[in-house]
Design a protein that fits this description.
single chain, 179 residues, 4-stranded mixed β-sheet, 8 helices, 4 strands, globular
Length: 179
């Protein structure tokens, strides 16, 4: 069975994972974390009184992993549907992993807001995509539905958060469990 890596580039935990691990022997599966929460009734800790604690934990992990200091986008969290749709388009063009790595790094190493279309377009350009074609595909009904379908399939598989690595035998959830 093929290993699968479920991710949403708006998650700092995804950034911590893909900034330090090659993940070149897995199928990258873009999903909507917000879509998972919609199905499970969950939500982001970043919108609770645990925000400061969570941010400090992520910053400490980045330092421990030898990564650059986290630069938090303003606002964070944001609305990342276009960025995640762009991940699907990039995968169709053969640069899905590269786009996801670039977008995630732009979000948490550069502090860029991935809910801004200009940031998504720039990530596309850096990955070798035509920004006008990317923009057209992001807005297509097919890509919108595909992100919904991929997220629902992940939920049905048991994915409840990101990053999650499906080894074929078990689901490993969290940057600290994936190595």
């Amino acid at each position: 069975m093929t290993k699968a890596f479920y991710f949403d580039v708006g998650s700092p935990y995804v950034y911590l994972t893909i900034a330090r691990l090659p993940l070149d022997d897995v199928e990258w599966k873009p999903i909507s974390l917000g879509g998972l929460w919609k199905q499970s009734g969950g939500g982001s800790w970043a919108l609770t009184d645990r925000r400061a604690e969570g941010i400090a934990e992520i910053e400490a992990r980045a330092e421990r992993y030898g990564l650059p200091p986290i630069r938090w986008p303003v606002p964070w969290p944001g609305r990342y549907l276009s960025a995640m749709r762009a991940c699907l388009v990039a995968a169709e063009e053969g640069v899905g992993e590269e786009f996801a790595r670039i977008a995630s790094s732009m979000g948490f190493a550069e502090g860029r807001d991935l809910s801004e279309m200009s940031t998504v377009w720039e990530a596309g350009v850096r990955a070798g995509l035509d920004p006008l074609a990317l923009n057209d595909r992001i807005g297509s009904p097919e890509i919108k539905q595909r992100l919904i379908d991929e997220t629902e399939a992940a939920y049905a598989r048991g994915v409840r958060g990101v990053p999650t690595l499906d080894t074929g035998e078990e689901l490993l959830w969290g940057d600290d469990r994936i190595s």
